[in-house]
Amino acid sequence: MKNYIEETANYLKEKGFDLPEVGIILGTGLGQLINHLEIIKEVSYNHIPYFPTATVEFHKGKLIFGKLEGKKVIVMQGRFHIYEGYTLQDVTYPVRIMNQLGIKALLVSNAAGAINLNFKKGELMLIEDHINLQGSSPLAFKGVGSLGVRFADMSQPYDAQINATIETIAKNHNITLHKGVYASVVGPQLETRAEYRMLKIIGADAVGMSTVPEIIVANHLGLKAAAVSVLTDECDPEHLEPVNIDEIIAMAQKAEPDMITIFKELIKQL
Predict the structure, then answer these.
(1) What confidence score (pLDDT) does residue 55 get?
(2) Where does the pLDDT of residue 60 fall: very low under 50, low under 70, confident under 90, or very high at 90 and above?
(3) The domain spanning residue 148 has which CATH number?
C-alpha cells in the first residue's frame, strides 16, 4: 500500500495539490461547502490512481483543492462506505492520501439518525466518542505498522481543543449543537426497532454508516480530528415509521448552513 499511496500523492501534487493544511470529508447531502471554496484544482475520483469511486447517487465523487477562510484545504465531495462493497482499507485510503499531502487536521461531516430522543432532526451533534459496529478495523491488515501506529490509542479520538472551539462557535452563532456518541454500522439497510433499542442501551446518541473508519485512521496517523453529525431523522422505536431517503437528504440540506458556518469559522481559527 505504501507504494500506492506515494503514487497517488505524486499524481495529485503534479495536478497542483500543494501542501494542504486541512482535510474535509463531506457526508450525505452535505456538499454545499464547495460553494464557499476558492477552488484551485479538482479531480474526479475515477481519474486518481488507486482511488475508489463513489457509487452512491447523491455522492459527487470529486477531490477538490482550494482555499477556505485563507487556509489551503482538500475537500472530499463524496465519500466511500463499506456498504458499497469496499473494504475498510478502501474507505480510508483518501485519509492516507490527504495525510501524505500534508494535512494536519481532518474534519468530517455525516448525516445520522438521532437515537437520543432529546435530539431533534435538523439539529447538529458534535461527536465526542464513537462505537464501532462495522465488524472490523481499517487497521487490520498486514504491514499497517509501516504506515502509522498499529495499536492506535483511541482514548480521545476526537480532538478536545477543536471540539471546544466548535462548541464556542456554535454558541456565538446561536446554533443548536448537541454532544454525543456516534455508532457506526455497516448498512445500507436502516435499523429495526430492536436495533434502535440496543443502540440506546449501549450508549449511542446517533447512528450512521460512516466516519468511524476515517477517524480511526486519522488517529493512527497522528492527525487531529473532529466530526459533526447532521441529524436527519428521529429513531424512536416505539413510534417508528418507514424511512424516506429523499426526506433524509432534504433534512441534511436544510441543516447544512449551520454546519458550514461551524466549519468555516473553525478553519479560520485552526
Answers:
(1) 59
(2) low
(3) 3.40.50.1580
